[in-house]
Amino acid sequence: MDEAYTRVEDLWFPDGTLIIKAERKIFRVTKSILASRSSVFRDMAAFPQRAGDDESIDGCPVVLLHDSAADVEVFLRAIFDSSYFMPPPEPVYIYSALGILRLSHKYDVQYLFRRALRHLEVPLYFSSVGAFREPVSDHITYTVEGEVDTPRRFFAIIKAARETCAEGLLPVAYYRASQYPHDALLTGPSEQAEDAIKCVKAGLILARENATLAKNFTSVGSILCGTPTECSSARLLALDMYLSSVEGENDVFPVESWGHAEWGYLKEHGMCPACIRAYRTVHATAVEKVWERLPRIFDLPSWSELAEMKRVVMGGIGLG
């Protein structure tokens, strides 16, 4: 065997009948199990590619995959170790989930594809703005110890979602990426440049949406208000609080602005129930409009179109 390849010991089965090479890693697995999971591997195993000058290793046919070794490793682990990639809410590292998503789509392993997509949908796909604004118990690990938080993971999600027809993940992934400072967005690898510029432009649009939401604090009240002086004072405090929360260049969170704590703050500072109800109604309507426009801000199909695309993909139509 070529010493330039590193054997992955716990994915090197002595009774394995197929050798897989990816970059500089090599795996020995059971051909029949792969074939039972994937029509693509079934065909590939029947007609193995030549890997350099080798046609076989230890009597096993060799398949050379043009995928990253990291993706191939997590993909094979998910197939050969039933405890490795459990359904949500079991914890999973983001890049493992993305690698499995990519290769299970490419090699038509539908149960793994759906499982990977369900993991990613927990923090990234919501049927309504109300669902988005509810607290989410995110089971995905995004960084390892010592790693700096950057928008890289969201660009990786965007790339994988495009490759696998999982467009429903894109609006929130773009939205999250847009919340990073401009210098963090624009100093990444060149292949991210187009998406980075899109996020910077979208951030400016979202900042304007923040300004529109802020204006509501100066223009909305209730005709049933019985304490106009107190409500006016609370309104100015609320406006100051809101503007302070969005003063940075990357503080573009209009869809998430003003939750239960903030409405309680208005009550504590003397705003009457009638004015609070009026503000909540106007604010909810404004946030709903931002949510509905969110896909369009990133040049994506509408929410209803994305929901239909999700239905098709999760139904197994057109996979592979």
TrEMBL record:
- UniProt-listed InterPro entries: BTB/POZ_dom, SKP1/BTB/POZ_sf
Any one Pfam family match given in the protein's UniProt record, by short name = BTB
* SUPFAM superfamilies for the chain: POZ domain (SSF54695)
All residue ranges annotated as the BTB domain in the record = 14-88
Question: What CDD domains does this protein map onto?
Answer: BTB_POZ_ZBTB_KLHL-like
PROSITE patterns linked to this entry: BTB
- N-terminal signal peptide: none
Q: What is this protein called?
A: BTB domain-containing protein
In its UniProt entry, the species of origin is given as Mycena maculata
